[in-house]
Design goal:
Elements lengths: L3 E13 L2 E16 L3 H9 L6 E6 L8 E4 L2 E11 L2 E8 L8
Antiparallel strand pairs: 1-2, 1-4, 2-3, 3-6, 4-5, 5-6
Length: 101
């Protein structure tokens, strides 16, 4: 049923030599890649966001992560939608702190 492997991550702050260092901790989960709905695309565009992909995973596997890595590209989770036992993660191209941990 699950066709793709994605990596979910949050940033973890640690102190190294007195400096705060942010590093992503990734873990792999199985997912289905889905298309962005037309309505979601236009709503995102009106808010200055560009939803690119939707991944569906088992809700029990989601731990409020902020980032998704898929095929070597990092995305920010911009919206979640729980649908029974599954949750949909709508993602957009990541811009910001390096999360390639």
């Amino acid at each position: 049923m699950w066709r793709e492997v994605i990596e979910l991550a949050n940033l973890v702050e640690t102190i190294v030599h007195g400096e705060v260092v942010k590093e992503a901790t990734y873990r792999k989960v199985y997912a289905n890649k889905k298309s962005v709905r037309q309505s979601e695309f236009y709503q995102g565009a009106s808010a200055g966001l560009k939803p690119e992909l939707v991944f569906e995973i088992r809700a029990i596997e989601f731990r409020d992560e902020e980032y998704v890595r898929f095929n070597g590209k990092t995305y920010t989770i911009m919206r979640t939608y729980e649908n029974g036992e599954n949750i949909e993660l709508t993602v957009t191209t990541f811009a910001g702190v390096d999360v390639n941990g």
